[in-house]
Amino acid sequence: MTQAVPHQDRKDQQLPVYRATDFRVVNGANEGDAMSFAAELMLDDIYELRQGCYPAVLAMTPNGDASFKISGRSSIGHQGARLYLDCSLTLMQSAGDTIEALVFVEVDNAGNVAEIYLHALAPLDAKTAYTLVGVDRENAHRRLALSSCVSFTRGTHITMANGVQTRIENLKVGDQVLTRDAGAQEIRWIGRTTVRATGPFAPIVIEAGTLNNHGDLIVNPDHRLFVYQREDKLNAGRAEVMVKARYLLNGDSIYVQNGGFVEYFQILFDNHHIIFAEGIAAETLLVDDKTESVLPKDLGEKFKKSQPGLSAPDQAAVEINERLLLDKDAASLLRRASSR
């Protein structure tokens, strides 16, 4: 039987990071110094990534106080150590393209800096000049939250309570949307953000018909789709499964759309629901430690306490593990499994 995990995501978050010592100033006020935290950085310093280094996996769990703890699945750092997200950086390449990156600081038991890590939101190339043009301490947590936040893109058709298909950019707070699990539900908040379509922000395109969807469905890579299997093609042990869009890539009808900009939308209800986007079932925003920073502070605190997860019967769904899809054409299997 195919293994599956409960529909709730594991609490730890895994990010590819470089050690600060792998990313040094080659020209500027801090020449020779490694990447550091915001207080020590100088704008216009030029950095390069060391030749031959590769990112490691930093796994962390939120502490609930804006800090994190390095978890046992991390391949870097000290398990159990406290970790802080210090700032967001904007780096410019010689051609004028910009890359955002997040700086994490690991501290020891005495509160001293033990290690600094750089999580780039787009690939970095060795021996390439990156000029530091921006340091932002106010929005770093929001950038991290957005990178893993379930999001639809402009133009996505959402099924309303009356059956009408409405483009997501035309929705308003208070509109009634059809949910799979709880009928008509009122929208409480809509988020809208435009970002560069690179790295974790590059959307996944699911072409029309691939999963029995009416039109192209373009979503954030971590957006989970709900599929009711009329026949258990994945051997999941139950009919209801959820799968992240990035696990369905096949290089043909489901692919990454890199380059340019993408406008993402998040829809919040009183509870975490399954709605219909381009005619197929997909989850809405779940407020938890990972995504709370996307919302205005008062809403984040309110909905984090009130959202237990999906409503019955959808809470019985299992999330399919990526490893079990690697040798399968998951999209074709799921399309056949969900067809009448």
TrEMBL record:
Annotated SMART domains: HintN
Residue stretches spanning the membrane: none
CDD domains assigned: Hint
Ranges of residues in domain Hint: 149-258
Name recorded for this polypeptide: Hom_end-associated Hint
Native source organism of the sequence: Cognatishimia activa
Higher taxonomy: Bacteria, Pseudomonadati, Pseudomonadota, Alphaproteobacteria, Rhodobacterales
